[in-house]
Amino acid sequence: MPAAERGKYVYRIARLLQEKAREFAVIESMDGGKPIRESRDFDIPVAAAHFFYYAGWADKLGYAFPNRPVAPLGVAGQIIPWNFPLLMAAWKIAPALACGNTVVLKPAETTPLTALKLAELLQEAELPDGVVNIVTGAGATGAAVVNDPDINKIAFTGSTAVGKLIQRATAGTGKKLTLELGGKAPNIIFADATIDQAVEGIVNGIWFNQGHVCCAGSRLYVEESVHDEVVRKLKHRMKSLVVGDPLDKNTDIGAINSREQLGTINKYIKIGINEGSELYQSSCELPSKGFWCRPTLFTNVAQSARIAQEEIFGPVLAIQTFRTMDEVIQKANNTPYGLSAGVWTDKGSKIFNLTTKLRAGVVWANTFNKFDPTSPFGGYKESGYGREGGVHGLGAYLKLN
Ligand code: NAI
Ligand code: MG
Fold first, then answer.
1. How far apart are CA 210 and CA 206, in angstroms?
2. Closest ligand 1 atom, CA of 146?
3. Rounded alpha-carbon distances, angstroms, from residue 249 to 34, 192, 319
């Protein structure tokens, strides 16, 4: 298919998604448990934005990689998680199609519905049969995709444990691989920051999507002199967060995605208590039925504590203090992960200093969880490799000679 023609299909998908945004938002919240406000204002529009963005690249790939012949890889196998089901599908399908590949996509077993709804939409867009194939199932289905000799590329987003399995399984097969894995992002607050704004950033950083976010700001480093003020304001703000029905537009924190994930989160809360950290949870009401977790924070957390080192993937924040720039850089970099980080300060010089020293694929300054299809996203260390988004995301779906 000529490149310009591909671009038209991808654009048509974007337009249809925009038209059907409400329906997709409701399905996403019912299926995965996230607040409808987030599905409506974030997941679905940002998914559509990725199709719009990559539609424009389809016939301009030569500009992305000047003087290099580019060719599609063939069949891309894509395995995605349950925290941003449609958005992850869009991140992966849009660049794959723009670059001329076909796709076998496996959504997560607890959240297959928007991917299936997207398959309907692709038919409506008259995408030729077989170009995108949605295959539902759990780990074994994912492994079948990974091991299929006719698949030329694997793009995986999920746990570091499964990412490592896939790395081993694809080694020596010639399959191109990109991995977006876990994270334990530091959110760093200097005393010169606008504290009220920073507190909102912390709230968004850890309590967005129940904390089921690979780049969640799950470790908070506060400069010692403002620690008490930040914690007081944060606790006050926590009291106003509503945990409840994902379909209610007043809900701030929806349902935990699965019984299994709730078990993991509760296990880590117990670990935090046993490690000697100090627990605080808001006392908001919880619905009687379902999987729920109140916004939770721990103070007095040691750098070596498991709740400061391991990905919890829930609404649980671990707070520490620092005195100097060197100390916070050392602490921030001291986990196996390196996906994202946040910095809050009024001093531009501090921001530039930190962006070069933090081992994180994304560093947000005076904001958090900002996404745009033009920006690359991806990790260092055990957070994976390869980049999605922007021009970088094209390289993941092309044979570059
Ligand atoms: P997971 O990594 O098992 O699941 C992610 C995807 O991989 C799903 O589609 C799943 O069916 C598939 N999968 C599972 N085993 C596979 C295999 N052997 N081969 C190929 N595909 C396979 O993650 P899970 O079990 O849902 O969550 C466990 C933890 O992983 C979470 O608590 C969280 O810490 C982390 N996680 C991180 C994510 C991220 O965005 N970085 C997303 C989901 C989970
Ligand atoms: Mg698993």
1. 8
2. 20
3. 11, 35, 30
d(C-alpha 277, C-alpha 269), whole Å: 10
Which runs of consecutive H residues, i.e. helices, occur in 182-250? 195-207, 227-238
Distance 162 CA to ligand 2 centre (A): 7
Q: From the centroid of its chain, how far is CA 140?
A: 23
Tell the residue nearest (CA) to atom 28 of ligand 1.
Answer: 159
Taking only the tens place, the pLDDT of each residue in 225-279 is: 999 999 999 999 999 999 999 999 999 999 999 999 999 999 999 999 999 999 9
Q: What pLDDT digit, counting tens, does each position of 184-233 carry?
A: 999 999 999 999 999 999 999 999 999 999 999 999 999 999 999 999 99
pTM beyond cutoff 0.85: yes
Question: Which residues does 28 contact at the CB level (< 8 Å), separation at least 6?
Answer: 34, 39, 43, 44, 85, 86, 113, 114
Ligand 1 atom with the smallest distance to the CA of 107 is: 9
Cβ contacts of 295 within 8 Å, gap of 6 or more: 206, 207, 238, 241, 243, 253, 281, 282, 284, 315
Q: Which two tokens stand for residue 251?
A: 């809900």
